[in-house]
Write a structure and sequence with these properties.
Layout lengths: L2 E9 L4 H11 L3 E10 L2 E9 L5 H7 L8 E6 L13 E10 L4 H11 L3 E11 L6 E11 L5 H15 L1 E7 L1
Antiparallel strand pairs: 1-3, 1-4, 2-3, 5-7, 5-8, 6-7
């Protein structure tokens, strides 16, 4: 069964997920996976749906009915879920907190790219610093570590970066 990756964005208000789910269900689609959130007054997300092949065009056409409520784009996805990662693949979890300033995500992702690591998930936020004033930046990053990759080198590079950026860093391997 074909899978579609839907990207959605709209002004945040109640009923948006229901409206999208109604269109998917009305066309025989199955909501498989999603990540959605409110960001700066907008509701944004990514949804993976599977739909019978004979109804793909019908579903994608019907998504236009949501115009004015949600902007939805449909992209073809892999027909079958990817195989589960092999046991030799491990993950590295990186938690970072520090004063907010431009370039933190760039600097962290550059270290990960240099080591050939793939980001599985990244969640970032900013919030008021309770005692010091200003804003704090927080990141939670999970990366896949290929077999044979030396974690100590990655950890050392991330710790050097944390010192340069003046942020607290916690790195743990699973």
């Amino acid at each position: 069964m074909p899978r579609l990756v839907l990207t959605v964005i709209g002004d945040d208000r109640s009923g948006l997920v229901e409206a999208l789910a109604n269109v998917v269900t009305a066309h025989g689609g199955n909501w498989e996976r999603s990540q959605m959130t409110e960001l700066a007054g907008k509701f944004a997300g990514i949804v993976v749906v599977s739909v019978p092949s004979e109804r793909v065009d019908e579903l994608t056409g019907s998504l236009r009915e949501l115009d004015g409520l949600l902007e939805v784009s449909a992209h073809p996805g892999a027909e079958a879920p990817p195989p589960a990662p092999a046991r030799e693949h491990r993950t590295l979890t990186i938690d970072l907190v520090g004063n907010d300033h431009p370039g933190i995500v760039h600097d962290v992702s550059a270290v990960l790219a240099r080591h050939g690591l793939s980001i599985v998930t990244i969640e970032t936020t900013t919030r008021e610093a309770p005692m010091a004033g200003g804003r704090l930046f927080e990141a939670h990053v999970v990366v896949s570590i290929p077999h044979g990759t030396e974690v100590a080198e990655i950890r050392a590079d991330l710790e050097r970066l944390a010192t340069e950026l003046l942020v607290d860093l916690d790195v743990s391997e699973q």
